[in-house]
Amino acid sequence: MTEPRAGDIGLTKIGGFAGAFVNFGQWFVGDFAPIQHALVYVGDGMVVQAMPSGAEMVPLEEASPVVMWSTDLIGFHGFEREIISEQAKALVGTPYSFLDYLSIALERLGVHRKLIRDRVASSGHLICSQLCVLAYERAGIELFPDTFPGDVTPGDLYRLLKDIEANA
């Protein structure tokens, strides 16, 4: 497996009830992927990840084992890696929102409600994939330019990286 560099996204599997819950939710909305969680490597062996207790910075070895890194798949410069890392660190402490999963489910089921999107955008809460996308956006890198950032799932990140990998 590739060694991560600061600013890389890591995709992981989650075991137990939480992993089964995320798997079911992804399947239910037609977004099944072999991963359930995303995080940002910020350097010095540390990652930032959104968790139900709030976004946290922890040593990589305390996070779920990464099965795929974005290393060398997303093209950007060294200074952008530093900005992504700093922006991810700035999100530590951000609350988590299970309601964002409901918003994503409604969107995937064809319900596009401005009120729901406005609530997600203004809540200041993030799930793991939203944290990754926001850190990149704050560094000037749009991973999903045609998608509302609140609708991005770990599965979307997985497919993005797989598509880039296949076309490389």
Describe what you observe in this structure.
There is one protein chain. 42% of the residues lie in helices and 14% in strands. It is globular and about 40 Å long. It has one domain (9-163): endopeptidase fold (from Nostoc punctiforme). Strands 4-3-2-1-5 form a 5-stranded antiparallel beta sheet, covered by helices on one side. α2 (78-90) packs across α5 (128-138). With 168 residues, the chain is of the alpha+beta class. The model has no long low-confidence stretch (mean pLDDT 86). The chain starts with 8 loop residues before the first strand and ends with a helix.
Compile the SSE list and pairings:
Layout: E1 9-12, H1 16-28, E2 37-43, E3 46-49, E4 56-59, E5 66-69, H2 78-90, H3 99-108, H4 114-123, H5 128-138, H6 154-166
Antiparallel strand pairs: 1-2, 1-5, 2-3, 3-4
Helix pairs in contact: 2-5
Q: In short, what is this structure?
A:
The protein is of the alpha+beta class. Helices cover 42% and strands 14% of the residues.
Query: What share of residues are in beta strands?
Result: 5-15%
- Provide the succession of SSEs: EHEEEEHHHHH
Total number of beta strands: 5
Helix content: 40-55%
Number of helices: 6
Might you state the CATH topology name?
endopeptidase fold (from Nostoc punctiforme)
Gap from first CA to last CA: 17 Å
Fill in the keyword field for this structure.
five-stranded antiparallel beta sheet, alpha+beta, endopeptidase fold (from Nostoc punctiforme), 168 residues, globular, 6 helices
